[in-house]
Amino acid sequence: MNALRSRRFIWMGLGPTLILYALFVFVPVIWSAYYGFFNWSGIGEAKYIGLGNYAEILRDPVFWRALKNNVIFVAASVFGQVPIALVLAVLLHKSNMLQRFLRSAIFLPMVLSTVVIGMIWQYIYHPQIGILNFLLDALGLGSWKLEWLSDRGIAIYSLIPPLIWSYVGLYLIIFMSALQNIPGEIHDAAKIDGASGGRKLVSILLPMIKNTVQVAVILCISGSLKSFDLVYIMTKGGPAHASELLATYMYNSTFTTYRYGFGSAISTTIMLISLLLIGTSQWLTSRKKDAS
Amino acid sequence: MNISTPAALRTDGDGPRFSLRRLGRIIFWTVLTLYGILTLYPFLWLLISSFKTNADFYNRPFGLPETWHADNFSRAWDSSRLGTAFGNSLIVTLGSLLLTLFVAALSSFILARFQFRGKGGILAFFVVGMLIPIHSTLVPLFILMKQMSMLNTYWALILPYTAFALPTAIFILTAYLTSIPKELEEAAFIDGTGLWGLFFRIMLPVSLPALSTVTILSFLHAWNDFSFALVFINKTGLKTLPLAIANFADGYQTDYGLTLAAMTLSVIPTIILYLLFQEQMMKGMTAGAVKG
User: Fold this and answer.
1) For residue A112, which phi and psi values (nearest 5 degrees)?
2) What ipTM was estimated for this complex?
3) Which residues, at least 6 apart from B83, have a Cβ–Cβ distance to it below 8 Å?
4) Which of A129, A283, B87, B170 is 20 to 30 A off residue B256, Cα-Cα?
5) Is A31–B140 a contact, with Cβ atoms under 8 angstroms apart?
6) Is the pLDDT of residue B121 over 50?
7) Which chain B residues are Cβ-neighbours of A266 within 8 angstroms?
8) Angle at Cα B31 formed by Cα B28 and Cα B33, nearest 5°?
9) What ranges do the domains of chain B cover?
10) Domain B79-286, CATH homologous superfamily name and number
11) pLDDT below 70 — which residues of chain A?
12) What is the DSSP letter of B63?
């Protein structure tokens, strides 16, 4: 009787969770894998075209541009956010007023909506009222002024400073808590051996928080696949698809031309790419662990 | 046994080394102050510029406004239907927050305290789900909701927000509950408290610290989300704050002060919460990112 009651309780309690999760996370994956084989505009009959959509994606130069831009974003996060956050974490490890204040200031963009962050940076880059161009003028560097977001060659690179600026706080806090877990004796030993500053960071602290740095790198990779909002707000993937990411490519291909089948195929492709990336990085880290 | 004395003498007595250290100090504070200014300036610029007229943007890009136009705020509030958007964001955020807390707490209670067949499978189900990049579900979820006639309702946002918040919430809560001794519940159980009673009267109060982390994470996720709202909502009366702000900017592109005032108004609630709970927010978001 009691066992029966607790079994009923178990499935009643887990039921809503499982239904919600299956319906909104797993069913879409299956749906997109299915509709990816069809040519379908959302209304009317869906026409089965086999791997046609996937062939079209692979032939589409915009897809490859988007993939390349995603790689640029990953590189910018790994080589921009991670080192800056590491240096800041070492500099800000004490807790006086100024350091606490700076820590909060650096983290602030993390809690704000990306819409507002993207719009602020849009104004910084604005061709007429942008403070970046005004600043260059004031410094006598008027010739460096550029159409930051509407020049095809540089739009994607202009998106990197806001990207780094808004996520550095997260990595700062991750690294700070890792550094705090290093026992005091290590710091004492470093002092006796005469290691300080950059030397201490590279040869003592960095190896000690290696695992945390690995986690941060994995976060950078998965995070870059998530950046949709920033790019959509600032450039909508333009000009002429120059700053398209995989996610904006999917959005633009689906909703500007009502090609739901094609969009579903792109969804599935993104899923496969990210599984591949996560799988590779997991495999690499686990292999390293075995080796050491 | 006097090994440390010469070392101490060397550091204190050496002239050039001392000035090198001072130089290091100066560089340290300059870098920190510069970075601090760089981090905060965009927010400061946003706040100050909200009071400006268009002429001020050209004539004094870095200065204070010639006259402080506080009426930018009231005009922005009236012309953007910001009140409605605030209300919508509040409904959607609170709805998904309460649903997440209840469903996740119940499931975590069961996963942490009961042994039953299929438990390992359920945990694996969540881990696999967390690998799915959230944006790759946009198109299939849109199709799914269209078929369920759920587009343009509050549920179109509440349910997906909840579903995607569940795995992190369950991992945080389950880990917390597992670390807590069972004596209290066992005593209550012997006293004849039923399973629901155990959950409401003992588990919920005991897991308050973990519940507050989950609250912060799902609040920020739902309040700041842009992509789901962009795809699932196009009725003006149902638009959430980030979506309304983005559309407002498209509509009033040339009235800069007005747009910036609307942006400032939209971030005030988050900034107030951040000032009150910054330590918790930093810890919570870091935990969520590392676990998620």
Assistant:
1) -90, 160
2) 0.85
3) B77
4) B87
5) yes
6) yes
7) 139
8) 105
9) 4-49, 79-286
10) MetI-like (1.10.3720.10)
11) 1-4, 195-199, 201, 287-292
12) S
Contact B226, A113 (CB under 8 A): yes
Euclidean distance between CA atoms B226 and B244, whole angstroms: 10
- Helix count (H) and strand count (E) of chain A? 17, 2
With CB atoms and an 8 Å threshold, state whether A264 touches B122.
no
What whole-number distance in Å separates Cα of residue A22 and Cα of residue A94?
46
Tokens of B24: 């290091």
Task: Kindly give, in sequence order, each residue whose CB lies less than 8 Å from that of residue A214, ignoring residues fewer than 6 positions away.
Answer: A285
From A21, A91, A260, residue closest to B32, measured CB to CB: A91
For A154-205, what is each residue's pLDDT tens digit? 888 989 999 999 889 889 988 888 888 777 777 777 777 776 666 676 777 7
The CA distance from B39 to A102, in Å, is 9
**Cα→Cα distances A22→A269, B53, B126, B149, B285, Å:** 20, 51, 10, 18, 25
Tokens (6 digits) for A239 = 């000009």
Burial class (CB in 10 A: 0-12, 13-18, 19+), B85: buried
Place of tokens 């190896």: A207
The answer to whether A119 contacts B246, with C-beta atoms less than 8 Å apart, is yes
**CATH 3.90.400.10, applies to A63-291:** no
Closest partner CB to B286 (pick from A18, A24, A170):
A170
- Do residues A277 and A221 lie in contact, with contact meaning Cβ atoms separated by under 8 Å? yes
Q: Which run of H or of E encompasses A48?
A: strand A47-48
Residue B52 CA: distances (Å) to CA of A57, A110, B9, B119, B252: 47, 27, 60, 59, 15
pLDDT of B108: 92
Q: Are B213 and B230 in contact (CB under 8 A)?
A: no
Chains A & B: contacts with CB separation below 8 Å? 245
Inter-chain CB proximity B42 and A124 less than 8 Å: yes
Nearest CA in chain A to B255: A129
Q: Is the dihedral of CA A26, B133, A227, A67 positive or negative?
A: negative
pTM given for the model: 0.86
Which of A28, A98, A197 is the closest to B144 by Cβ? Answer: A28
DSSP-H helix ranges across A60-196 = 61-76, 82-91, 97-111, 114-124, 131-138, 155-158, 160-180, 184-192
Tens-digit pLDDT profile for residues A242-259: 889 888 999 988 888 888
So where are chain A's domains? 63-291
Query: Scanning every residue of chain A, which has its alpha carbon at the shortest distance from the alpha carbon of B109?
Result: A13
Helical pair B208-224 and B155-178, crossing angle rounded to 10 deg: 150
Are B110 and A10 spatial neighbours (Cβ–Cβ below 8 Å)?
yes
- Residue A254 CA to residue B135 CA, distance in Å, equals 13
In chain B, alpha helices (H): 4-13, 15-49, 54-59, 71-79, 82-113, 119-130, 138-147, 155-178, 183-190, 195-197, 204-206, 208-224, 227-232, 241-251, 256-291
Q: Find where tokens 């086999």 sit.
A: A50
Hey, is A225 helix, strand or coil?
helix
Report the residue of B26, B59, B136 to disrupt the A interface, i.e. the one with the largest count of A CBs within 10 Å: B136
- Mean per-residue pLDDT of chain B: 82
Q: What is the H or E stretch that residue A212 is in?
A: helix A210-226
